[in-house]
Amino acid sequence: MAAADIARQVGEGCRTVPLAGHVGFDSLPDQLVNKSVSQGFCFNILCVGETGLGKSTLMDTLFNTKFEGEPATHTQPGVQLRSNTYDLQESNVGLKLTIVSTVGFGDQINKEDSYKPIVEFIDAQFEAYLQEELKIRRVLHNYHDSRIHVCLYFIAPTGHSLKSLDLVTMKKLDSKVNIIPIIAKSDAISKSELAKFKIKITSELVNNGVQIYQFPTDDESVAEINGTMNAHLPFAVVGSTEEVKIGNKMMRARQYPWGTVQVENEAHCDFVKLREMLIRVNMEDLREQTHTRHYELYRRCKLEEMGFKDTDPDSKPFSLQETYEAKRNEFLGELQKKEEEMRQMFVQRVKEKEAELKEAEKELHEKFDRLKKLHQEEKKKLEDKKKSLDDEVNAFKQRKTAAELLQSQGSQAGGSQTLKRDKEKKNNPWLCTE
Amino acid sequence: LRLPETRTDAAMSELVPEPRPKPAVPMKPVSINSSLLGYIGIDTIIEQMRRKTMKTGFDFNIMVVGQSGLGKSTLVNTLFKSQVSRKSSSWNREEKIPKTVEIKAIGHVIEEGGVKMKLTVIDTPGFGDQINNENCWEPIEKYVNEQYEKFLKEEVNISRKKRIPDTRVHCCLYFVSPTGHSLRPLDLEFMKHLSKVVNIIPVIAKADTMTLEEKSEFKQRVRKELEVNGIEFYPQKEFDEDLEDKTENDKIRQESMPFAVVGSDKEYQVNGKRVLGRKTPWGIIEVENLNHCEFALLRDFVIRTHLQDLKEVTHNIHYETYRAKRLNDSGGLPPGEGLLGTALPPVPATPCPTAE
C-alpha cells in the first residue's frame, strides 16, 4: 500500500513517526479538491476522423447535450480544425470542455499532408503553454489549459482493416497525445465481423508500433476495471441523440426497419464503456499524462532543438531563460528584417509604377492641350468665316433695301410709268412688280 | 497608352511567397452554457483527483523561529501529536546555544486516514539569543531563498523530474514572547524582512502567563503594531481570492490572530478524560480547551483548513515573485554568447532585495 514517492523519501532517511492522536491532516485531499473545484476544471478532446463518421453526434451523445455546429461538406480543400468551448456544470463541479474536430479529413484526393494541420494544432497548444511557463511574470495557476488531453480517433467501419491514412496519422500523433481509437458507426458491422475487425486493428497497431493510450493499472482501486477495458479496445460505438420508446422508457437509439440499436445497451455497442473510461474513471489520468509525459517530451525536444543542454548542477540555470529569449528575439529580428526588405521592394515597385503612371498622365495632358489648341484654331477660323459671311449677308441686305427704295422712288416719280407699266403688265404679265 | 500591367503582377507574386497553409490556431473560445440532461459523470473527477493525490502523498515544510525557551519544539510536537522536533532542553552539554543562527531541517513521515505526509520541521536555534542580534534574520532569509533557488533550478531543467522535490518553506511560525507590553524591535525587524518572502504566522508563546484581559490587550497591541509597520502576516489581505475567503480570513486576521498558545506533550486526567496539558499548583491548563488557550484554533487553522492554501500561496506567489526577480536580475545578456559557461551574475550573497 506504500505510495511509491513517499516510500522513496522514507528511504532517503526519513523515519515514519506514529501519531499519538488525531491531528487532522487527513482533510488535505479535501482541501486540495475544494480548491480545484472552485477553480474549475479543463478538459480538451480532439476528434479525428473522416467526414461523416459521426464525430459531432458522438460528442452530443457523450455529454447529453446538443453542441452547436453544422455538418461539414466533403468539398473542403484542406484539413482544418474547428474548436468550440463549453461550460458544463454538474452538482458543484464546473468543467470547461473544449471539443476540437477535424473538418475535411480524408476528403482530399492527395492525403499526404492531411495529418499536418492536426500535428501543428497540438504543437501550437503545447507551445502556448511553454511560452507561458517561460515568461518572467506568469500566471500558471489561472492559465486556461488548451492542451489536448485525449484524441478520439474514429475508424471507418469497413470491417477489413485500418486505412493507410489512419496508420500514418496515428503514428504521427501517438507521441504527442493520448490516442483512444474507436470504431465509428459500428452498427454497420455484425458481431462476428466486429471481433475479427478489432483483432485486426489491434495487431496492425502493434505491428506498426503505434502507441495508443492504455488505461492505467497501477492504482488498485481501478486496476481491475481498467485492465478489462484495455482488452476491449478499440471501442465500437454508436451515437444518437434521438430518443425511441423501448418498453416503457425513452432511450437513445437508432431505429431501423429490422430493429433498434440502443446506445446504452452494452450488448449492442461499447458506448457505455467509452463513457465510463473517458469520463468517469480516467479523466484525471488523461490530464496528468498529457502534462507529465506528452508536454514534457514536447518541451524537451523544443528546448534541445533551440540548442539548450542541461548544464552541470553548479552553473547557473538561467542561461536557458534569456538565451531562449535572446534566440527568440534574434529570430523575430530576422523576420522583421525580411519584412523590411519586402516592404522596401514593394515601395520600390510602387514608386516605379507611380512614375510610369505619371508619365502617361503627362502625355495625356499634352495631347489634350494640343487638341484643345487645334480646336481653338478651328473655332477661330470658323468664326472668321462666319463673320465674313455675315458681312456679305449684311451688304446684300443693304443693297436690297437700297434697291427697293430706288424702286419706290422711281414708281412715284413716274406714276405714268407705272400705268405704263401696268399696261405693259397687262400686255406683258411676265414683268415683276414690287 | 499601354501600362505594363502584366509585368508588375509577376513582380508582385515574386514578393509574396506562396502562402503556406496556416496552422489551424483555434479561434478565441466561446463559452456556451449547455444544460445537461441526464447524468454524465463529470463530478467523478473529484474522486479521481482525490485518489491520485492520496497516492502521491503530500509534503509540508514548517519553520519555527523564536528565542530559545519559548516552547517552539513542544508546540510543534503538540501540533502533530508526535515527536517530530527535538527539544533544546534535551540537548546535552556539547550542544550549547549556537553562536550564530543555525538552520536544522528534519523530516518525518506521518500517516493518518490513508493520507501520507512528509513533514519537515525547520528549526532555527540561535535566533535572538546573542547579545548582538543584528541581522540574525539573514541566515533564515538566505535559507528560504535557497529553497526557492533549488526548486527553480529543477524547474528550468530540460529533463525534469516528474515531481520536483519541494523543500520550500510553506509556513513560518514566529514565536512572540508574552511580555504583555508590545513587540520587540527584533520581532518587527524579522517579520518585516521575512513576511515578503514566506508566510508568517505570529504566535504568542507560553500564553498561560497572561490573564484573559492581558491576553486580549496584548493581542490588540500586537495587531496594531504589525499594521503600523506594514507587516502582512498570513493570511495576507491581498491574496484573498473571493468574498467568502475575505470574510473568513478577515475574522481570523482581526480577531483570532496572533494565536495565544500553550504547548504540551504530557497527558493528564481531567474530568475522566485524558487530555494534553500543563500541571501547575493552581490547576491543569488544558491545551485543547478553547477557554484556556487558542491552541486548537491554531491547529485547525494551520492543519485542517489552510494547509493546502499555505502551500499554494508559497508556490503561486512567493515562489513566482522570487523567480521573476531572479530572471529579471540576470537578464540583459548579449545573444550568441554560448550556453555553457555563460557568465551570469552569481546568486547574490545578501538576500535578494525584496520588492518594496
- Strand order across the largest sheet of chain A: 3-4-2-5-6-7
Give the helices and strands of chain A as they follow along the chain: HEHEHEEHEHEHHEEEEHHHH
E-strand count of chain B:
10
* Class from helix and strand fractions of chain B: alpha/beta
- The outline of chain B comes out as globular
Distance between the termini of chain B: 73 Å
Enumerate the spans of chain A where pLDDT stays under 50 for 5 or more consecutive residues.
1-11, 312-317
Share of helix of chain B, binned: 25-40%
Percent of residues of chain A in helical segments?
A: 40-55%
Descriptors:
heterodimer, A: about 425 residues, alpha/beta, six-stranded mixed beta sheet, three-stranded antiparallel beta sheet, 11 helices, 10 strands, B: about 350 residues, 9 helices, about 15% strand, globular, disordered N terminus, GTP-binding (chain A)
